[in-house]
Specification:
Radius of gyration: 17 Å
Structural class: alpha/beta
Number of helices: 10
Distance between the termini: 38 Å
Shape: globular
Order of helices and strands: EEEHEEHEHHHHEHEHEEHH
Largest sheet: 6 strands, mixed
Strand content: 25-35%
Strand order of the largest sheet: 6-7-8-3-9-10
Bound molecules: adenosine-5'-triphosphate, magnesium ion
Oligomer: single chain
Length: 240
């Protein structure tokens, strides 16, 4: 059996009186790309935030290998190996590219290998090296997204969580982003990906979950979901 890295069972989350997730169960196996897709407001970002401890689970269990994550603060969860690139990137705009990368190595285990991590980031994204001393806020949208991902992979995470990495990027840069995701995957990084770009996401994903108003409406291999007429009709604008 595949090695289960992340297991979310029966997760419910609410913001005040508003329930955003209802008994959601998903899993991510070691070394795979898993896509979470669904309409705006379906609860995709909430699911990611609950996994990384930014919002509290009301009910349910979240396990990373043998560690239970529910109730732990975000910094503990990061230390256990989850790196979350949030929607909107979460960069320090007034700091340089290099300073932002250095912050990616805040984990005690990553610090001794800071130089190595930065070299790895530059190898993955040569453009960031050329712009090492430029303020992050002055990078293009695509470059900022690359920087946010580079910063996340510097800590050698067990699980890389990406919330809409292609948001706001031009079609060419979106393609580069998906190539990058496949490159990281081929280097053994396990990726949990949320995307509006459903076609591309399911194309690269080993497995996918469709969220609908806070519940898992469908799941299957990327290929099966991509071929599913219901999904084509509801999310990819394909008419019958
Ligand atoms: N901080 C918050 N306070 C109150 N309600 C929230 C908060 N964040 C999200 N919600 C609500 O929870 C629901 C799920 O939101 P969420 O951001 O998880 O959706 P999403 O699937 O990521 O959507 P999108 O594709 O637009 O990013 C929505 O109804 C949203 O209005
Ligand atoms: Mg979202």
């Amino acid at each position: 059996m595949a090695n289960r890295l992340l297991e979310v069972s029966n997760l419910s989350v609410a913001y005040g009186d508003v329930r955003a997730l209802w008994g959601v169960s998903i899993h991510v196996d070691q070394g795979t790309i898993v896509a979470i897709v669904g309409a705006n407001g379906a609860g995709k970002s909430t699911l990611l935030r609950a996994i990384s401890g930014i919002v509290r689970a009301q009910e349910g269990e979240i396990k990373l290998s043998d560690n239970s994550l529910v109730g732990r603060p975000p910094e503990d969860i990061a230390r256990l190996g989850i790196a979350h690139v949030p929607e909107g990137r979460g960069l320090f705009r007034h700091m340089t590219v290099l300073e932002n990368l250095e912050l990616g190595a805040f984990q005690p285990k990553a610090r001794p290998r800071l130089r190595e991590g930065i070299d790895k980031a530059y190898a993955l994204f040569p453009r960031l090296k050329e712009r090492a001393h430029q303020k992050a806020g002055s990078l293009s949208g695509g470059e900022q997204q690359m920087l946010a991902i580079a910063r996340a992979v510097m800590s050698d995470p067990a699980l890389l969580i990406l919330d809409e990495p292609s948001l706001g990027l031009s079609p060419l840069v979106v393609r580069q982003m998906f190539t990058l995701i496949q490159t990281l995957h081929s280097q053994g990084v396990t990726i949990l990906l949320v995307e509006q770009n459903i076609h591309q996401a399911l194309k690269v994903a080993d497995y996918g979950f469709v969220l609908k108003t806070g519940e898992v409406a469908m799941q299957g291999t990327g290929r099966d979901l991509l071929a599913n007429p219901e999904i084509q009709k509801a999310y990819m604008g394909v008419l019958e």
